[in-house]
Amino acid sequence: MAAAKRFMVEELRREREASSLNISELTTFVDGGEMFSEKRRGTYPKVIEDPVFSMANSYFMSREESFDDSMKKSVRYVQRKKELALDPFESRVFKDAITEDLPIALHESMFIPTLQGQGTPEQQEKWLSLAKDYKIIGAYAQTELGHGTYLRGLETIATYDPSRQEFVLDSPTLTATKWWPGSLGHTATHTVVVARLIIKGVDRGPHSFIVQLRSLEDHTPLPGIEVGDIGPKYGYFGMDNGFLRMDKIRIPRDQMLMKYSKVLPDGTFVKPPVAKAAYGTMVGIRCGIVIYSGRGLARAVTIATRYSVVRRQGESSTGGPEVQVMDYQTQQHKLLPLIATAYALISTGQFMLRMYMQIQSEIMEGNFSSLPELHATSSGLKAFCSFAAAQGIELCRLACGGHGYSLASGIPHIFVQYAPAMTYEGENTVLYLQTARYLNKLYSQKLPSSGLADNVAYLASNYTLQKRSPVRTAQQFLDPHVLLEAYRQRARRMVAIAVTRFENGKRSGLSQSDAWSSSTCDWITASNAHCHYVVLKSFYSAVQSSDLTGSNRAMMDALCALYGVFGITKYSGEFMTDGYMSSEQVALARDQLYSLLSTVRKEAVPLVDAFDFPDETLNSALGRYDGDVYTHLYKWAQRAPRNKKKVHDVYEKYLKGMLKQTKAKL
Questions:
Q1: What DSSP line would sit under 341-394, residue for residue?
Q2: Which of 395, 393, 396, 400 is nearest to 414 (CA)?
Q3: What is the chain's mean pLDDT, rounded?
Q4: How many CA within 13 A on the CB side of residue 150?
Q5: Which of 8, 272, 286, 602 has its CA at a distance of 20 to 30 angstroms from the CA of residue 431?
Q6: How far apart (Å, rounded) are the C-alpha atoms in residues 293 and 388?
Q7: Shortest CA distance to 300 belongs to which of 414, 444, 139, 221?
């Protein structure tokens, strides 16, 4: 590779030269095809070479400076998107390369998709051209100060006035204040407001309305609109998450999105064909979170892996140089399963995208039969993948020791950018329980496997619940059929336990609701087991259907096995439920885990190289391709604004008076 001719520290050079992997082929696998790899490679330089998108000083910025910088990048992004005529994939790659939270992000990820998914043809004709040309900037206002995931509990109301054919939107209480929507604080001119529709005193549930927030002349809030920024957060300094209160503002009837539910001029309410038909935006965002989870973890594990090879710590048994941190088994146990997890989540994201596109096509044709499957799958995988990614990113930081705590490592930035995904668009516990209701329904229906989607076929009435795993040797854990069956058996048993507790609760006299509440911890476990199986299955399917050959195929098979075996050792108690696995079999899984760590260790650096992140987008002194960690850590510290003066201002302000008599006493 041409990159190998560049300067790099000896440790990384040796790792790469010893590799038998075809990095380009692995990158194509990660990207989902050569066409996507070519587009990504062609798009990244357009960001990296533009000084507006530079990340060089981003870690030194205050919150206000970050917002200013992100807004500048937003406007530049829109300009370049038009100039380059970027298609949707290229636009996503372009934003991914920027790696900052752009204040206009919700405009593209939620406002426009909501118009597309819930607007009538007439509404789309009116609003979409304005939105796509950025003549208006939209947000999505759903979450309230007092309510989040529980949509039926939203307090914002939209009361229909048939005499004027208008809706009156109102925030009747403090807790009805819209709170958290990105872009709302100071960027958006318009927003989609989710409010409870009230017609002639009857509550018709949550619906979506287009509301103008600010003047298109001078950006001032319109009468009846109180809007602003919610203040500092854990991260996302460049995003203006905002609040919104409305005091009986009026909008025309045609600003309720009416693709599914409709309100006729006289106030007649027309129900949607399916109760959750309008939830497409949330489902789409959840799918996006699944897709992004693998890339977020891949960034962090690239940094931690490269640094763990460069960093030496501890006395060598041979008397040579200190030991590479990556050669410690404990470090391998931290990081190598995370490399496997990143590949698994990326494969799951590709599966989720295909599923979403297929079912969206069916919905466009009026077929809603697969919507429950899409909703349940996207909910559970959003919860599972976002937690796995966030947990993995933090473990990568810990694996970098003290330097991982520095912003210069790049990992703290990745974590605070990704951690909110565990909460927004549905808090993870709530989403797991939505998946659980789907699993409970399928289990209770006792359908044959022919009547179930492949991912839930293990819930069929004719599915065989094995008494005991057939594993007798550690080697058998390399067999994908053995691993997948183990995960199916675990998921089936966890669902059965949850169903039993739920049914026992009802038999004991509890109401349906109370019986469900008393079994929710078991249902969370069941949903987690189900999603874990889907991720492993997606990973194996992606590898088996790929064009990977030779060493690449062998290594991906090893990563699949590593991901699966690591899960067995981590959740051994669940795999041992009802005696399906014995402690001896779990011990064999652990033996195979350690063997796989040794195998994957040899190719750890090439495996993260295949994610193909340029140094400029990683923005990490620890994760540089050349491994020149300490030079760049030192240079980074020298650039700190606090070091511009040899004597800092605090000396004159505070220290001088305390220290002034010291010299006389020495």
A1: HHHHHHHHHHHHHHHHHHHHHHHHTT--TTHHHHHHHHHHHHHHHHHHHHHHHH
A2: 393
A3: 93
A4: 7
A5: 272
A6: 8
A7: 414
* CA dist., res. 412 & res. 394, Å (int): 8
In the three-class reduction of DSSP (H, G, I as helix; E, B as strand; rest coil), residue 5 is classed as: helix
The domain ranges of the chain are 134-271
Long-range (24+ apart) CB contacts under 8 A made by 433-436 are 433/520, 433/523, 433/524, 433/527, 434/375, 434/376, 434/379, 434/380, 435/376, 435/377, 435/379, 435/380, 435/383, 435/527, 435/530, 435/531, 436/498, 436/520, 436/523, 436/524, 436/526, 436/527
Residue 281 has pLDDT above 70, yes or no: no
Report the alpha-carbon distance of residue 242 to residue 188 in Å, rounded: 10
Residue 509's Cβ-side half-sphere holds a number of Cα atoms within 13 Å equal to 0
Predicted confidence (pLDDT) per residue in 184-193, tens digit:
999 999 999 9
Task: Identify the band that residue 359 occupies on the pLDDT scale cut at 50, 70 and 90.
Answer: confident
CB 65 within 8 Å of CB 238: no
Using CA atoms, how far apart are residues 311 and 629, in angstroms rounded to an integer? 9
Given the structure tokens 């990568």, which residue do they identify? 396
Q: Which of 129, 247, 232, 136 is nearest to 185 (CA)?
A: 232
134-271 placed in CATH 3.30.700.30: no
* Of residues 248 and 235, more confidently modeled: 248
Residue given tokens 């080697």 in the structure block: 475
148: DSSP letter: S
425 is catalytic: yes
Q: State the Cα–Cα distance between residues 639 and 132, nearest whole angstrom.
A: 40
Half-sphere exposure of 398 toward its Cβ, with a 13 Å CA cutoff?
Answer: 13
Q: What is the DSSP letter of 654?
A: I
Helix axes 428-445, 371-399, angle to 10 degrees: 140
Q: Which of 108, 425, 574, 603 is catalytic?
A: 425
Could you give the CA distance from residue 538 to residue 395 in angstroms, rounded to a whole number?
Answer: 24
Task: List the beta bridge partners of residue 178.
Answer: 144, 244
What is the rounded distance in angstroms from the CA atom of residue 177 to the CA atom of residue 180?
10
For residue 223, give the DSSP letter: T
Q: At what angle do helices 371-399 and 280-310 cross, to 10 degrees?
A: 20
- In the chain, % helix, strand, coil (3-state, to 5) comes to 60, 10, 30
- 60's tokens: 């030194």
Residue 663 has pLDDT above 90, yes or no: no
User: Is residue 580 within 8 Å of residue 469, measured between CB atoms?
Assistant: yes
Both tokens of 584, joined, read: 């001896």
Q: What is the 3-state secondary structure (H, E, C) of 240-273?
A: CCEEEEECCEEEEHHHECCCCCEECCCCCEECCC
Does this model's pTM top 0.90? My answer is yes
Selection from 170, 141, 176 nearest residue 157 by Cα: 170
Q: What percent of the chain has pLDDT over 70?
A: 97
The two three-digit tokens of residue 283, written as one number: 């489902």
Say yes or no to pLDDT of 4 above 60.
Answer: no
Residue with tokens 């590949």: 343
**195 and 156 Cβ atoms separated by less than 8 Å:** yes
Cα Dmax for the chain:
91
State the average pLDDT over residues 177-196.
96
Q: How far is CA 305 from the centre of its chain?
A: 21
pLDDT tens digits, 459-502: 998 898 889 999 999 999 999 999 999 999 999 999 999 999 99
Residue type for position 86: L
